[in-house]
Each structure stands twice: as structure tokens, then as C-alpha cells.
Amino acid sequence: MPKYAGRKAVVLGGATGLGLVISKRLVEGGADVLVTGGPGADLGAAAAEVGSCAHVVRCDPADPAAVEALAPVVEARLGRVDLLVVLTSAGCGDPAFNSVAPADRCRPTRTP
């Protein structure tokens, strides 16, 4: 049985780069995946590369309204989320982001 069979995953920033690689591996492992891509991402190319078990949608992670609007899309397409991968640099140009010490930005977060 594939490693992620029956799992539902969301990959924010999954249409390009490392996120695309992770999205492909999750699909290859049997997961049902919802992949998001920001304004510059080629969603058609991402959908073709990731495969038919993925839902690819546009979501600008720097736009709070777009992120909030993503929740009902995730619920409608996946029903639940078992895995969440966040690969985005949204907000990195914001002075508030740069006022945080690099060690604090990289601190591991424990989740249940």
C-alpha cells in the first residue's frame, strides 16, 4: 500500500520549485493533494506535472482574503486535511517580518 494512501494534503506554494517536488511525491505516494500557486505560477504546467490526483488552485499567500477564501475550496475538494505543507515567502518584504530575529523565524513548531 502506498505510504500516503487515503491521506488528504494541502501544499501552499506547491506549484513551483520545492513545493512542486513535494506535491508530486505526495501524489506518487497515494495522497489526494490540493496544490496552490501564487500570481506568477503556471497552474496548467503544475497540474500536468503533478498528475490527476491533484487539485491545483490559485491562491496569493500575501492576500489574507485569498487565503481565507481557500478554506471552503479545501473543504469542498478534500473534505479534511491530514497533511499541510507551507512553502511560501509571502510577507518577506514586509518590514515587520525583517524585525524578527532569524533564529525566531526558524524555530521549530510542534503540532499535535
Automatic annotation (TrEMBL):
This is SDR family NAD(P)-dependent oxidoreductase. Gene3D superfamilies: NAD(P)-binding Rossmann-like Domain. GO terms for molecular function: oxidoreductase activity. Pfam families: adh_short. Belongs to the short-chain dehydrogenases/reductases (SDR) family. Transmembrane segments: none annotated. Keywords: Oxidoreductase. InterPro entries: NAD(P)-bd_dom_sf, SDR_fam. It comes from Streptomyces venezuelae.
